[in-house]
From TrEMBL:
Gene3D superfamilies attached to this UniProt entry: 2.60.40.790
Family that this chain belongs to: Belongs to the small heat shock protein (HSP20) family.
Annotated ranges, domain SHSP: 47-159
Naturally occurring in which organism (per UniProt): Simplicispira hankyongi
Name of the protein: Hsp20/alpha crystallin family protein
Superkingdom as given in the UniProt entry: Bacteria
Amino acid sequence: MSTLTKPWQQGAQQAWASLAHGWRDLRRRAGGALTRFRRSDLSGRDARASWGLVAADLRVEDDRIIVRMELPGMNREDLQIDIDGDRLSVSGEKHLEQESGDGSYRLVQCAYGSFRRNLVLPHAVDAERTQAHYRSGVLRIDMPRADRERGRRIPVHAA
């Protein structure tokens, strides 16, 4: 192997390793946010499901759990929130607003249709006192932690 080829090969291997690490990190961080959107109107030319990101932050405090989800372009009336045991489910429908005119889309990167995003909650919450607010494309769900005992240590006695 020539002396010029070896440094080039090492550089290419380092670049490939760095690129592979970046993709693995992106997949790890965004994998949970990847959400399937299903078109509800099958009359459209392209009725296939598409994928989009529904990014979420989940913060645990002493007395509550706060979830923030980025849902731009939605109306609050199109959102539904359910809590079932340790699972938070946010579903809704993002509508494509048709603009009048003679043009046609050349690029569509936004996801439209119905979706459901599920998050496993790390602690029990009081669903009755949960509040949700939607403003500027961000849904904030404030869930008070349940008052029930979170667990305790059981002493072992001699028989």
